[in-house]
Amino acid sequence: PGGVHIVKFESLSNKQQIGSNSFKLVYRARWTHQQGDTDVAVLQIKGSGTVGRADFQQELQLVQLLGLHLNLHRLLSVTVEPESGDWCLVTEFASLGSLDSWLSDAHDSGKTLSPLVQLQAARQICDGMVQLSLHGVIHRDLACRN
């Protein structure tokens, strides 16, 4: 769809569900491709193989519109989940987890984040939000968990 590379679902292995909502399922997976193996996030858009196709197209167009940005997840490819026929976005995987988990782990282990680290994190969030705003996108669920 729209100039995005489509990969075979079978190139994704070790799939583990790590999140979900009413719109999508999120998996961590290992993607085997020409350059090697890469840990990825797979966002399965529920119902996109049938009635939800418009939702998938909207999500894909949004990701393409935003383009490459250092502080936004990068779209690597798309695929189709064979059992449901649902379309999936294959994106880079945040190996350190969500910001809220990372902050919670740091707090629980007694680590103190310097004001500079706190300021850098806030700046990166703001930079990503500016990119969304420049394209007229309203993030309706901005939270450290995502």
Brief overview:
By secondary structure, the protein is an alpha+beta fold. It has helices spanning 53-66, 99-108, 115-134, and strands spanning 12-20, 24-33, 36-45, 75-80, 87-92.
Overall description:
The chain has 146 residues and is an alpha+beta fold. It is 30% helix and 28% strand. It contains 3 helices and 5 strands; from the N terminus they run E-E-E-H-E-E-H-H. The protein has helices at 53-66, 99-108, 115-134, and strands at residues 12-20, 24-33, 36-45, 75-80, 87-92. Strands 1-2-3-5-4 form a 5-stranded antiparallel sheet, covered by helices on one side. A hairpin with a 2-residue loop joins strand 2 and strand 3 (36-45). The longest helix is centred in the C-terminal third of the chain and has 20 residues, at 115-134. The two termini are 26 Å apart. The model has no long low-confidence stretch (mean pLDDT 86).
List keywords for this structure.
146 residues, alpha+beta, five-stranded antiparallel β-sheet, 5 strands
pLDDT averaged residue by residue:
86
Helical element count?
3
- The tally of strands reads 5
Low-confidence stretches: none
What would the principal axes of the Cα set say about the shape?
A: globular
Helix content: 25-40%
CA(first)-CA(last) distance: 26 Å
Question: What characterizes the major β-sheet?
Answer: 5 strands, antiparallel
- Percent strand equals 25-35%
Radius of gyration: 16 Å
Please write the string of helix (H) and strand (E) elements. Answer: EEEHEEHH
> Widest sheet: strand order?
1-2-3-5-4
Give the helix/strand class. alpha+beta
